[in-house]
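ok trying again, last paste got cut off:
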Amino acid sequence: MRVAQSPPFPEETHIGDVDFTVPAARDISPVPTQEHAEQASAQGLSIDVTRPDPGTIVLSARGEIDSHTVQRLHELMWHRLASCSEVVVLDLSAITYCNTSGLQLLDQCRLRAEERDISLRVVPDRYGLLARLLDITGTRERFVLWANAVTAAHAE
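nice, full thing came through this time. structure:
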């Protein structure tokens, strides 16, 4: 399932250098969970890790993904993609900035998930930043983007 066309970008979007910035996201509700596993943060990025069921892990990022914050997200994703989970959902619906560091991480995680036969499900931000970045770099066809984390976590 592909997400619908996103609304136009605000004026502070910088397409030439493939960096995007938007106002902070509001009213974002987390995936219902049986267990809250952990919360991590790096300056400008917070990450909640939840397990809605035994075979699914959801990483929900809020804030900015750039060269300063991507390492913490990488560590958490890499660990989850090494686990015996069947599904890993990367919920980016609350990110407000993403550059090519985030795109590189996403592509690395996709490859690792394929190697381990794990379903990696990506929920893009609400502003279309990630979708636009994927389009600009010609990598969109590598990913199926989910409308929201609940749908991604509970799809068969």
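cool. The longest strand covers residues 87-98. Confidence is low (pLDDT under 50) at residues 1-39.
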